[in-house]
Amino acid sequence: MIYLNNFVALSSLGATDEESADSLQLNHSRYLIQNSEYLLNNESSVLGKLTFIGDTTENESCRNILFIDQCLKTLEPVILNIIEQFGAARVGVVLGTSTSAISDVENKAQNNYRMDLKLPFDKRVYEVGCLSKYIKKKYRLTAPCYTIATACSSSGRALISACQLLESNLCDAVIVGGSDSLSKITVNGFDSLGALSREHCIPFHKNRKGINIGEGICLAIASKTQLSENAVKLIGYGSSSDAYHISAPEPSGKMAIEAMQKAIKMAGIHPQDIGYANLHGTGTVLNDSMEANAICAVFGNKIPVSSTKHLTGHTLGAASIVEAYICYLILRDNLALPYHNYKESDYRDEFDSIDLVTEPGRKIDKKIIISNSFAFGGNNISLIFKL
After folding, report:
1. Do 385 and 233 form a contact (C-beta atoms < 8 A)?
2. How far apart are CA 135 and CA 346, in angstroms?
């Protein structure tokens, strides 16, 4: 069992715990809106740009590090305290991302191409590992430090890696998280795959058309001992790999089932002990169908389930830990479960086998939550949380 302390998150839900909780309860996100900055030919799509964070300048390394700095304003006193308590050689850093600094590379490369100039920066600054190295350098840490990129399960893998660093006694605390920003490569890439919805995504709806992409970051302090009053416990995790297709999930969900079963076994609980499942629920035809099959196999229709992607957008490499933060808010504040504003005819024909939350006000009755993240290449993660 590992404690996740001092969550700090920025997403389309908002910039504070209060904004995020309000967005979850109102089933509305003020930042997930139509945007024509990223698709080719100035076409518009629903995207979650964090407009409360400014754009990068020539003196700043990348947009994801702007996100990190914003979170560190809140988290820094805690970090300094754990460094004093454990030592710089015992505080690790593990982050997940899929975009790293690619949006900044896009902008600078495009501008320099127009002026027939070479790129005037050290490319090492923009590699995937730059995010965790930034925190390591800022606080002069000497413990293990690395960034994980397994597409949309990246920060879930980072959480598991943080647990393993603690369990192997390589660290006493780990700064763990994930961050992803919008970029033209990801937005147009998902569009070329036919996986991008131009309208608000509608996971598990009969007319679902794909994902919305959103920016997001979440950081927390992982430790074997409780360091904050409202820490959430990560009591079980499971991972698996489909090895089925580069972008499509294995249709039966057998490896997603394995990830959930591993997490349940590690937690030392039974499926019926879990009160809610936060689904990966991207809103694509194939993912939602597969995940419903997997949920039915593990839980039947005995557990309330929903997705929060219609509120956050898909935050890609940050999705696992942003949704861990959502689970934390639900448990800490006894929030009503996230829901989909659907009529029965919108989903029942295809998803009758799961208990999809479609009305406001439903509360969790068993204070344990499982959260799923499934990524390209069949990288599956399931995490189980309790207070």
Report:
1. yes
2. 45
Q: Which residues pair with 371 in a beta bridge?
A: 278, 383
What the block records as the tokens of 265 is: 């076994």
Query: DSSP 3-state helix, strand, coil percentages of the chain (rounded to 5)?
Result: 40, 20, 35
Close Cβ partners of 220 (under 8 Å, ≥ 6 residues apart): 4, 5, 6, 7, 8, 175, 176, 177, 321, 324, 325
What does DSSP assign to residue 366?
S
Q: How many Å is the Cα radius of gyration of the chain?
A: 20
How far apart (Å, rounded) are the C-alpha atoms in residues 308 and 317? 15
User: What pLDDT shows up at residue 120?
Assistant: 59
Q: pTM for this structure?
A: 0.95
Closest CA to 283 of 312, 325, 244, 263: 312
pLDDT of residue 121: 59
Residue 58 has pLDDT above 80, yes or no: no
pLDDT tens profile 123-154: 665 678 889 999 999 999 999 999 999 999 99
Q: Strand 232-241 to strand 216-223: parallel, antiparallel, or no bridges (unpaired)?
A: unpaired
Q: Which residues are catalytic?
A: 152, 280, 314
Q: What pLDDT, in 10s, does the model give residues 277-297?
A: 999 999 999 999 999 999 999
The confidence score (pLDDT) of residue 217 equals 98
**CB of 3 within 8 A of CB of 227?**
yes
- Output DSSP code: residue 211: B
With the C-alpha atoms ordered 294, 298, 303, 308, is the resulting torsion angle positive or negative?
A: negative
Angle among Cα 16, 19, 25 to the nearest 5 degrees reads: 140
Beta bridge partners of 200: none
Q: Residue range 266-272: average pLDDT?
A: 98
Cα–Cα distances in Å, from 359 out to 126, 155, 213, 336, 339? 44, 30, 25, 10, 6
Quickly list H helices, the chain: 17-26, 63-86, 102-114, 130-139, 154-167, 184-192, 254-267, 285-299, 309-312, 319-333, 348-351
Report, as an integer, the average pLDDT of 254-259: 97
